[in-house]
Specification:
Blueprint (H helix, E strand, L loop, with lengths): L1 H11 L13 E3 L5 E3 H8 L5 E2 L6 E2 L5 E2 L1 H12 L20 E5 L4 E4 H5 L8 E3 H109 L4 H9 L21 H4 L3 H9 L21 E3 L5 E4 L19 E2 L8 E7 L6 E7 L16 E7 L3 E3 L17 E7 L4 E6 L4 E7 L6 E6 L12 E4 L5
Antiparallel strand pairs: 1-2, 1-5, 3-4, 6-7, 6-8, 9-10, 10-20, 11-19, 12-16, 12-20, 13-14, 13-19, 14-15, 16-17, 17-18
């Protein structure tokens, strides 16, 4: 194995770097590199300046010195019939069988010395393969650095998105538990009412059936007695001895007579009205008081109402009047916006109420925190403690005080708006109470008392004169 490697090493030294064959008439240049005479001559034919194909050193004169030692070694290798072995990983030109030592930047391809000197590449930009390698390494490193930066950005995006997906799934699981809990409570309420009604049915059945069964038993006893008497009389009738028949007849303590059995025909039925009426509606009406949250019965606080607002006597309706009223000034009263608050604030629990907005072209309703400003022109947005939805021009709905947050998805024109407040859950949601479709939801961590908010809006040309009406169970 060692002798074979030694043989390969010395034969590599007698191979021409241009033709990659054993040297033929080898010559040496002043730089020390060796070539076949015909190879270097052909290489220099089209060059204005002679240079070494290996190190690119230029020579003003063609001083070609014969290298007799290489000639002898090459001849020895040919006589031994050895085959020239190209160095490993050495790239060769398919057209000229020469080593690829140049990079054509114009065509982005590797070329040999002959290719470089050809007319085809005459106007092209070439670069030695070593220099090109360094240049492309820099480009690759730059691309690698860029990709590393892109990778970091994408990894961060991946991490963020995974967290969002995880949070969304957690939220979905939480909402699923909430939905199941709400329906479980409804099922419990319905089951309890079902069991109560069935119990009432059994009680009423028992109350009616027991006397009837007692009466039935009495009838059956009398029927038995009648049957016994009939049997006795039938036996008597079959007596052929006249004297015995008369004697037996005279011996009876009771006079045989027609006995009429009186049976009561009094109507005895279950109450169809109680057990077979509009049962579902009746149960629904009963459930209203059990539902949490049920429909809250709110009233307006006159001490907070703008002087131009007119409240109904029961303080459940508010509309805009033509003139300001002479009413006491209070710190709680709105003095610029035509607004009023509910009389009750909330610091816990869940509440739901509905406001009738029928025939109105402007309104604003929702909730505000107790410390929210009420004087002057206030921007009614969450930052200022206002969580509201409002209508303008009879068709454009907003969730904040800027037009960029218009609720474009609200296709129907609600006649009633439902507002849901979950204090601990930090949620204020709005619904089209006509079909309970969702309109918008605010989320916030509440830390102070929250009040219902009502603003009937401007009454331009009498087009918005209808009041806002707080709906109760028996109202709206």
């Amino acid at each position: 194995m060692a002798s074979k490697q030694k043989e390969e090493n010395w034969t590599e030294e007698i191979i021409c770097p241009i033709c990659h064959e054993f040297f033929t008439d080898p010559i040496s240049l002043d730089c020390g590199h060796n070539f076949c005479r015909s190879c270097i001559t052909k290489c220099w034919e089209k060059k204005a300046i002679n240079s070494c194909p290996e190190c690119r050193e230029s020579f003003p004169h063609r001083d070609l010195r014969i290298n007799k030692l290489l000639a002898k070694l090459a001849e020895k290798a040919r006589q031994a019939k050895q085959v020239p072995k190209v160095k490993e990983n050495q790239l060769m030109c398919d057209d000229h069988r020469e080593e690829l030592k140049w990079v054509c930047q114009t065509e982005n391809k590797l070329i040999c010395e002959t290719c470089k000197d050809s007319a085809e590449h005459g106007q092209h930009r070439e670069m030695p393969i070593e220099d090109a390698t360094e240049m492309y390494k820099k480009r690759v490193k730059s691309s690698l650095d860029s990709l590393s930066g892109d990778q970091s950005v994408e990894q961060e995006s991946e991490k963020t998105l995974k967290q969002k997906i995880f949070d969304l799934k957690e939220q979905a699981n939480s909402l699923e538990k909430h939905i199941k809990s709400e329906f479980r409570e409804l099922h419990q309420i319905l089951t309890a009412k079902e069991q109560r009604l069935l119990s009432d049915l059994r009680e009423e059945e028992k109350r009616i059936v027991e006397p009837m069964e007692k009466n039935l038993r009495e009838i059956q006893e009398r029927l038995k007695s009648i049957e016994e008497k009939r049997s006795s009389l039938q036996t008597l009738m079959e007596q052929n001895d006249l004297l015995a028949f008369l004697k037996a007849s005279f011996g009876r303590k009771r006079r045989i007579s027609d006995e009429t059995l009186q049976i009561s025909t009094e109507a005895t039925t279950l109450s169809a009205g109680k057990f077979k009426g509009p049962l579902q509606y009746v149960i629904w009406r009963e459930m209203i008081n059990s539902i949490d949250p049920g429909l809250s019965s709110l009233t307006l606080d006159p001490n907070t109402a703008n002087p131009r607002l007119i409240l109904s006597e029961d303080q459940t309706m508010v509309r805009l009047g033509d003139n300001e009223q002479e009413i006491p000034y209070t710190n709680e009263r709105f003095d610029y916006w035509y607004s009023a608050l509910g009389s009750e604030g909330f610091i816990s629990g869940r509440r739901y109420w509905e406001v009738k907005v029928k025939n109105k072209t402007e309104w604003e309703i929702g909730v505000v925190r107790e410390s929210a400003g009420r004087k002057g022109k206030i921007d009614s947005c969450p930052v200022n403690g206002y969580w509201t939805v409002w209508l303008r021009a009879g068709k454009i709905y907003f969730a904040t005080s800027t037009r960029s947050n218009a609720l474009n998805g609200l296709s129907l024109n609600p006649q009633k708006i439902g507002i849901f407040l979950d204090y601990e859950g930090g949620q204020v949601s709005f619904y089209n109470a006509d079909n309970m479709s969702h309109i918008h939801t605010f989320t916030h961590t509440f830390t102070e008392k929250i009040f219902p908010y009502f603003c009937p809006g401007m009454n331009t040309n009498g087009e918005n004169s209808a009041p806002l009406v707080i709906c109760g169970i028996k109202k709206c």
